[in-house]
Amino acid sequence: MLQVSQLCSRSALNLHSARSHNSNKLFPRYRSVCGGCEQKPQCTRGQFRTIGIHTCNVARQKAYEVPKTPEFAVALRQRRKVEALFSELKNQIGLRRLRLRRIKFVREQFCLAAAAQNLKRLVRFLNLRAQPAMATA
To answer: What does the angle CA 4 – CA 47 – CA 54 come to, to the nearest 5 degrees?
Structure first.
């Protein structure tokens, strides 16, 4: 996302903004500003330029920077583990469609499915621990 100062080196001059119909803040650059600018050939081929920046641009920039942080990578790894468990519940244990309709029955069905999933994981964990012990005996 671009800031006004990144788009024009003379942005400090005459920053009169107007709001357009699509939530953009318009920063018109008039002939008096753009005419003597040494970067005008790089900026525009016309006589002047209007820069439109959305009002939510600051929030967009923050959202764009979040995936670049190391905390996001940690959160993504943790989320991947949880998502794998829910996909197993949906695809293998059969919680894609619930059979009961009231919230207490749905909660009961989900708890039973989660208990079954935990038992499967416990068996897998105990088998991994038992195999090295059997190999040494």
So the answer is: 25
Q: Residue 137: helix, strand or coil by DSSP?
A: coil
In this structure, are residues 43 and 4 in contact, taking their beta carbons and an 8 Å threshold? no
Cα of 83 vs its chain's centroid, Å: 16
pLDDT tens digits along 35-94: 667 776 777 777 666 667 777 888 889 999 999 999 999 999 999 999 999 999 888 888
Give the tokens for residue 12: 């400090």
Look up residue 23 and give its DSSP letter: S
Quote the strand ranges of 1-137, DSSP E: 18-19, 24-29, 49-54
Under 8 Å CB-to-CB from 54, ≥6 apart: which residues? 23, 24, 25, 60
| Mean pLDDT value of segment 103-111 | 92
Task: Taking the CA atoms of 26, 27, 31 and 36 in sequence, report the sign of the dihedral they define.
Answer: negative
Dihedral Cα 23, 24, 30, 36, nearest 10 deg: 170
Tokens (6 digits) for 72? 């996001």
Q: For residue 124, what are the CA distances in angstroms to 128, 129, 134?
A: 6, 9, 16
Query: What residue ranges do the domains of the chain occupy?
Result: 4-62, 69-136
